[in-house]
Write a structure and sequence with these properties.
This protein is about 40% helix and about 20% strand. With about 250 residues, the chain is α/β, with parallel strands linked by helices.
Amino acid sequence: MNPTATIRNLTLGTGRPKICVPIVGRDREEILGSAQEIKKHIPDLVEWRIDFLQSVEEMLEILPALRKALEETPLLVTFRTKEEGGERAISPAEYTVMYQKILETGMADAIDVQLFLGEDIVTALVEAAKQHGVKVVGSSHDFSATPAEEEILARLCRMQELGMDIAKIAVMPKDEEDLLRLLHATWVMKERYAKVPIITMSMGPVGMLSRLCGEVFGSALTFGTVGKASAPGQIPVEELRTALALMAKN
């Protein structure tokens, strides 16, 4: 049986990959407008990319309204650092305090924590999230290359060893061989090592197949768009849903 994790009313790790839609607005009006539009498409999960905002105070002011707008749709809160393809840099101390304040609101169902910020930060945030009943998505992003299969597996395994509830990696392919490496690593992780649900993706046009075939290789979630994308290669949500249904049917 595949490992599972439940975020609010959503269980990852069973059936076809679930669909997450990102919100990447830069102010309250844009963020809440995006949320209302996204809700019409009935996503399984919404990711709020808070690195598009400039202050923790702004994040905390918008969060209650966003939670209300999403109703029962699970909310993943993510600060993607500049080093891993995000909008801005942040110090480790600021990153930790920011997430602790978000956890204290009780309005996030999951947070994204980057593996390479270091074990002290990861451990502290995993413990804080558990105290608040919030799931942690461990993440690693490489926008320049696709690492060796052993490295992909090592990162995913390390995330679960550190207590993260879901392990995620996104990589950039230069060709179809890189895409195949990511897919094979995903399958090996699922078959041999996974103790938590995994999310993997190969970005850009070459990697698009990885966003569709998670049910075959073992990735539990994929990202679709309503409006702006948060990473290269994301597919409009209705097209993505159709493709996933076709894969599941056949």
